[in-house]
Amino acid sequence: MSLGNVLHTPEVLADSEPLEYFAPIIRTDFEAHAGFQPAVTTSFDIPVVVLSVHLYYKERGIFQDRLGFGKRPAIVVVDFACGWTDDHYAGGSKQLDGPIENTRQLLRVARLHQIPVIYTTSPHRPDGNDQPFKSTADFSSIYREWDERACQIDERVAPEPADLIIEKDNISAFFGTHLAGHLIHHRIDALLITGCGTSACIRATATDAKSFRLRPIVIRECVGDRSAVAHVGTLFDIQARFADVVSIEESMDYLGGKNAFD
Hints:
Elements: H1 3-6, H2 10-13, H3 19-32, H4 48-60, E1 73-78, H5 82-85, H6 97-112, E2 117-121, E3 164-167, H7 179-185, E4 190-196, H8 198-211, E5 215-224, H9 228-241, E6 244-246, H10 248-256
Parallel strand pairs: 1-2, 1-4, 2-3, 4-5, 5-6
Helix pairs in contact: 3-9, 6-10, 8-9
């Protein structure tokens, strides 16, 4: 079937493989964004354009592989700090409440099995000469000023003493940090990725993890974005080209049989 025919055959989309991943995502995220409805949907609320791209890839036999979980995992919690999770800040969003709670549950299981946990946040340097631009910290006259608390990890997923906290100046957890060296030191081969935002820091972290020949695993219910459109589209593209996108149930089952220090 050619791409040109896909948009006229929604019945084909109902049998498409990504439904198990993307039907719950799109349905939940679009419902959560009041007043927003996708312009074109199938009976499963799946935007036709997203699945049409999948069918195009499948027809050509590209981007069909899965990486798998690996043998020695670690978890990275990307930017679940108050400036992103508290909507008193201009860049904060209650859309992250669900992913935070799911990440809290995931961390509980991971720590039972001594899985290394890494957090990222931004540094707070209000007097520095290298201030960020086009960032969550941009000034807003009607929201709470970006402050030291904005860079502190949300207490709902608070780090424990053994966890590593990395301050990063860029969107990837790897760029300009010692994360790669830390994972190499612990002989990690799989990185389970949680946090925000899906379309920026999660995508960049997954892409760099693949570049370091790790197995990036994005946990669907543990990542979030301010935009449902960006969230869903990015997860689809990440799954196709950079990482595996899996459910929290799959992840917990996997972690339940692992000890990263065995």
